Predict the structure.
Amino acid sequence: MANFSKRTQMVHGGIRRSQYGELSEAMFMTQAFVYPNAEAAEARFVKAGEDEFIYARYGNPTNRMFEDRLAMLEGTEDAFACTSGMAAVNGALMALTKAGDHVVSSRALFGSCLYILEEVLARFGVEITLVDGTDNAAWEAAIRPDTRLVFFESISNPTLEVVDMAHVVSLAHAVGALVVADNAMVTPVYSYAAKMGADLVVYSTTKHVDGQGRMLGGAICGSRELIRGPIEAYMKHTGGAINPFAAWTHLKALETIDLRVRAQSDSALKVVEALSGHEKLSFVNYPTHPSHPQYDLAIAQAPSAGTVLAFEVKGGKEACFTFLNALEIFIISNNFADAKSIATHPATTTHQRLPQDQKDLLGISDGLVRLSVGLEDPSDLIGDLMQALDRV
Ligand SMILES: *Cc1c(COP(=O)(O)O)cnc(C)c1O
């Protein structure tokens, strides 16, 4: 498959056909595997071969097909598929740190990621330093000779801050620290994380991989040494492996991810262009639009910032809710990256629990809306946004 483009790899990559020669990937709904005799069981526990499985918590042929196909998309040697994006983040961070280690992370993080750093790792004696992810000097000041791991969201949710990946990776690698990038917003289609040297790339596959609102899932992508070493050991013993039904759904979804994410991202840019300068909005935020303060960096890293944008409705919460309640196509939900377009009010939902000073620091105002652009006709979406803004 290596000679073919990613779009072709996403249709055929990683496939393992059974003796029945099925066209579609098979879903192996089995907890355990059986052996022809006691000697074969013993041999497999000594060392399982490429296509030999023991127990679904350790691995499963459907999971393996999904892992191989996703690793092809990311451009890494291997991947481990997890029950959710948070299982993946937790696995990557817990498997690679120990008491006394120092971790540096960007501050603009998904709330549950912040919980793992500040509540879980800190409880086990890992020292955490949080920095403004857009400030290269802050990274430089925070990363020390004893820093073991660096973590960030490549593009942050919901404020779309962009991390200068090459800069942060070079600072981290200079002191021997591993780099873990949470790439949910960037999407696996436009990902540059592995190419730019991130050691592990973590996905909530709930987002663009499934992309159709069905299955929770996650994945950790990286070198075979890390994935089949500390990551697999931690995940298989702590019960974080994806279930085969979710892996199968994700595997089929990878067949269409290139078409979906490119179409949704093209529509997102059209929406940004239509909304830019609108009198009811104080700003529109999309990293690969020239109006974004980090446009030069964003466009150098990827041709598109993906399917999500943000903007601020003038007039605070009341004006913002009037706008949200007037939408006819956009659905009010906390999810993103779905085929159905979604509008989110982070201040009262996903980020409700953050103290006000943290909201202020991150720019999560009462007027902020996060839009996830789906697969509908973009002219319908723009019409919907315009009629809802007229009501404000
Ligand atoms: C959604 C999300 C997660 C968590 O993923 P789940 O699949 O919901 O567990 C982690 N990080 C980011 C940036 C996300 O957007």
The chain has two domains: 6-253, 258-390. The radius of gyration is 21 Å.
